[in-house]
Design a protein that fits this description.
single chain, 115 residues, mainly beta, five-stranded antiparallel β-sheet, 1 helix
Length: 115
């Protein structure tokens, strides 16, 4: 619940919705993972790098699974996040990169199904 409130508070700084993006500090970016799922991404700059937070929601119901991922990215570093989906569906992979003065979010891609 605190994560969602923090994301809502950061929304005052601006919200962008798209796929690939480069966002400034304290800007919330929403990425659609599929028709029912999305991820909110924001970061705060610090001396050791970008403190990145990704919060995913698997559906739009009040009982939907919410997951949170946090990492610190130094200049030039990247992190890949694999986000699970429903049974039989391939996970979605997001790539986040510290681009110096902005966080780059690559287009999310569905991983190959492991059938």
């Amino acid at each position: 619940m605190r994560t969602l409130l923090a994301a809502a508070a950061l929304a005052v700084a601006g919200v962008t919705t798209a796929q690939a993006a480069e966002i400034a500090a304290l800007t919330v970016h929403e990425t659609k993972l599929d028709a029912e799922s999305s991820a909110l991404v924001y970061y705060t700059p610090a001396p050791d790098g970008f403190h990145v937070v990704v919060t995913t929601q698997q559906s739009r119901t009040s009982r939907a699974a919410v997951e949170r991922f946090e990492t610190v990215l130094a200049a030039g570093q990247s992190a890949a996040i694999s986000i699970p989906r429903g049974a039989g569906e391939a996970p979605v992979r997001m790539l986040l990169s510290n681009a110096g003065d902005r966080l780059h979010i690559a287009d999310p891609i569905a991983a190959a199904s492991a059938r």
